[in-house]
Design brief:
Structural class of chain A: alpha+beta
Number of helices of chain A: 15
Strand order of the largest sheet of chain A: 4-7-8-6-9-5-3-11-1-12
Oligomer: heterodimer
Largest sheet of chain B: 10 strands, mixed
Low-confidence stretches of chain A: none
Number of strands of chain B: 16
Radius of gyration of chain B: 29 Å
Largest sheet of chain A: 10 strands, mixed
Structural class of chain B: alpha+beta
Largest interface: A-B, 51 and 57 residues
Mean pLDDT of chain A: 90
Number of domains of chain A: 2
Number of helices of chain B: 12
Distance between the termini of chain A: 29 Å
Strand content of chain A: 15-25%
Shape of chain A: elongated
Radius of gyration of chain A: 30 Å
């Protein structure tokens, strides 16, 4: 710590260079944090899945429908607290760019099965009692200004219809970018192939211990029917979507590695210039009795200080930005966009490592010179 | 009077460490940009090449994919005899196909993805040109045999020649692997349509019908006629449009990502380039003074420094292209969100993308060196010589 002041003075010697290097660090760290957050958000669904819920779908594909009558049979399975149809409507609000998920559900059971969705009691009542009613997430309200009482039309290419809904409630909690409406309403207007059919069944178990058994029982009930089911815990269900990303995930990791390496080059180049320019000084320091280790420590300290400042600002900027502006509003399928604390710590450690590694070689060379060699340098 | 190019070249060589570091920084930025774009291009090319220009695909109204579509055999028999459908002798060039999915673990992983299985008839091979057996043989009609695309064999477990896999309750044997000239079919397994019909208990309908139109006019007329018929509840579009519509989400998201990442990386690389150039100007202050005394004007100095840095950037971009090149044609996969099944495709580093990358690199070099070069050109002769 004795040399802290000297290191600081050295950092401030070439202010423009320091500023540029720090700026470079800031943008790189910001980018790494953004990409890491994209990766964690991909897995948000399985991370935050409710262990008491299951999802049942057609065993062949999500694209196939299940007979709605299955609900009664699933309800009779021991350990099932509640079950309801859950059908992807694929409705588009005005323009295809305004993508948000919309599902038909059993309005009367919604509150019980999705207890994490919070809405004032009067809005729940209004939603349940209006056949045309819809409940929308808070973020949809922010994006499109949906307010209770408003009539909105969704155009569904799947059902080939324009359907009008009345917003009856705005919920908060979990995924706030979804619209839910009455399954009965969907059934009334569904074309023949979709009558009395559901895309998925959402099942709530009495306890998390019942979940695996319920899954097996339900699947064995329908195994020999025209519509065999595949029933999984909500976590597995979410994970099956996440693995669909396939190679894209590896690819993102590759990009993060490239950014880190490029940051290493940037820092390495700057630090090499800095160290080389001071060759003569190293000779002087050595001549007045400084040990090689101490001089090396000064250089490493300088690099680490740059890294800490750059990373600190980059991390602070990313955190501040993502906390004040909710990026998930603009990214389809993302329910939130908040960097994890682990990500921030990892980014900070990474920056310090890059700082240290960037200065090692030039420091090793310059501090290894004899006094005479160093003083003779023309740099 | 312009400075000789040799002057710039020599300078780059003298400070080669710094030149290389700067070039590589720009190179990595360019490489990342190129790779993300190449990924998006791969998806685009796979899907847009999948449709034949004169094929009409018929699906249920509202279907965006064949999987959740249905065309009854009765309807099919009417469709193929419509005017405008090419005939080979008496037989219309048309086919009804059935699509289903199987879930398979990826190689080296316990988790997997859906793979699309297509039941095809004899005419399918004519309608989807490019199909070629790579190894083994094709399936025997009527038997529970399958040919698997080479890419799917490579990416998933248990789909090599001789392996058996299950569709619902029936076992199929893999008897061959195939290529299809880069089309989306390279993400599929093909079996006999009648075998698949009995396996999936789907005896009175197909998933989709494909018809070959005589020409462009016939294609439009056919599509319109089928789509507009209120009794049919079917949608007919050109096969090309059909596949192009599926690529939207994935490749659009990737292009957005490419712009976001490479813009930020370019800013970082620009700062780094600025640093290097400021250092170069500082070190050569005396030299600049000398050049000015010799009669080179401010503008020549400005151009010389800009050129030098753009040259480094272009070298960097070239390095970036070289770094990205090995991934050209490497195959990877993600899910097609329209079909919920795996779509395998290649990175495609095409010439226009490479040119774009080169220009992108040069722009980073130019912007990064603008301020240092201006500074160099503004040095006053007396002060420069005294430095």
């Amino acid at each position: 710590m004795r040399f802290a002041k000297l290191i600081l003075k050295n950092v401030l010697r070439n202010k423009r260079r320091t500023l540029l290097t720090i700026s470079s660090l800031i943008v790189s760290l910001f980018l790494i944090i953004s990409l890491a957050t994209i990766l964690t958000e991909f897995e948000r669904g399985s991370q935050e899945a409710n262990p008491m819920r299951l999802m049942s779908r057609h065993s062949v594909s999500l694209g196939f429908l299940l007979p709605i009558g299955d609900v009664q049979r699933i309800q009779s399975v021991q350990g099932v607290k509640a079950v309801m149809p859950f059908t992807w409507f694929g409705g588009i609000y005005k323009d295809e760019k305004n993508f948000f998920a919309n599902f038909a559900v059993d309005a009367a059971k919604m509150k019980e099965i999705y207890a994490e969705l919070k809405m004032p009691d009067d809005q729940w009542k209004a939603f349940e009692s209006d056949r045309q009613g819809a409940m929308v997430g808070k973020k949809l309200q922010i994006l499109y200004g949906f307010t209770p009482g408003q009539r909105i039309t969704l155009k569904s290419p799947i059902y080939n219809q324009d359907v009008e809904f009345v917003v009856r409630g705005v919920y908060t909690g979990s995924d706030e970018k979804t619209l839910f409406f009455h399954h009965e309403y969907l059934n009334e207007l569904a074309p023949a192939w979709a009558k009395d059919q559901a895309g998925l069944f959402a099942i709530l178990a009495n306890s998390a211990d019942d979940v695996p058994r319920i899954g097996q029982t339900v699947d064995s009930m329908f195994v020999n029917t025209d519509a065999p089911t595949k029933t999984e815990s909500e976590k597995e269900f979410a994970r099956s979507f996440e693995t669909m990303m396939g190679g894209v995930k590896t690819f993102l990791y590759g990009i993060m590695a490239a950014i880190t390496f490029s940051l290493l080059l940037v820092m390495g180049n700057t630090m090499a210039m800095t160290v080389r320019e001071r060759t003569k000084e190293v000779g002087t320091l050595k001549a007045i009795g400084f040990k090689r280790g101490t001089i090396a420590g000064l250089f490493v300290g300088e690099a680490v200080l740059l890294a800490v400042i750059g990373a600190g600002i980059g991390i602070a900027a990313a955190t501040l930005l993502f906390r004040s502006v909710d990026m998930s509003l603009y990214i389809p399928n993302f329910v939130s966009f908040v960097p994890e604390t682990e990500t921030l710590i990892a980014a900070f450690v990474l920056a310090i490592l890059v700082g240290v590694i960037s200065v090692v070689y030039s420091t090793y060379r310059v501090t290894g010179l004899t006094i005479a060699e160093a003083l003779r340098s023309t740099e | 009077m312009a400075l000789p190019l040799k002057y710039n070249l020599r300078n780059l060589i003298v400070r080669k460490g710094s030149t290389l570091a700067t070039a590589f920084t720009i190179g990595l930025t360019v490489a990342v940009f190129l790779l993300v774009m190449a990924l998006a291009r791969g998806i685009d090319m796979t899907l847009s090449s999948s449709g034949e220009p004169l094929n009409v695909i018929v699906v249920r109204e509202g279907s965006t994919a064949e999987l959740n579509s249905s065309v009854s055999r009765e309807q099919y028999n009417d469709l193929i005899y419509l005017d405008g459908v090419v005939r080979e002798g008496e037989t219309p060039l048309a086919t009804g196909e059935i699509i289903t999915l199987i879930y398979k673990p990826r190689k080296g992983m316990s988790q997997g993805s859906n793979v699309q299985v297509r039941g095809v008839g004899p005419m399918s091979f004519k309608l989807h040109s490019g199909f070629q057996i790579a190894q083994g043989r094709t399936f025997q009609p009527g038997l529970m045999e399958a040919v698997v695309s080479k890419r799917i064999t490579e990416r998933f477990q248990g789909l090599d020649i001789g392996d058996k896999f299950r569709i619902q309750t029936t076992d199929y044997t893999v008897v061959g692997t195939f290529d299809s000239g880069g089309k989306a079919f390279e993400s599929e397994i093909w079996v006999d349509v009648n075998s698949l019909a009995s396996t999936t208990k789907r005896v009175d309908s197909f998933s989709s019908a494909v018809l070959r139109a005589k020409d462009q006019n016939a294609l439009s007329a056919l599509s319109k006629r089928i789509t507009d018929d209120p009794k049919l509840h079917l949608k007919a579009v050109s096969e090309r449009t059909f596949y192009e519509d599926q690529q939207g989400i994935a490749s659009g998201a990737l292009k957005g990502l490419a712009v976001f990442i490479s813009f930020i990386m370019a800013v970082g690389a620009g700062f780094a380039g600025m640093n290097t150039m400021y250092a170069a100007v500082a070190r050569r202050t005396k030299e600049i003074g000398t050049l000015r005394v010799l009669g080179f004007g401010r503008f020549s100095i400005l151009i010389a420094f800009l050129l030098e840095s753009v040259a480094v950037a272009v070298i960097g971009a070239a390095i970036g292209i070289l770094l990205a090149m090995p991934l050209n044609f490497v195959s990877t996969g993600t899910s097609n969100w329209a079909t919920f099944s795996e779509i395998a495709f290649n990175f495609r580093v095409t010439l226009d993308l490479a040119v774009m990358a080169l220009v992108f690199g040069a722009i980073i070099g130019f912007i990064g060196s603008l301020l240092p070069s201006i500074r160099a050109s503004r040095l006053r002769i007396v002060e420069a010589l005294r430095a």
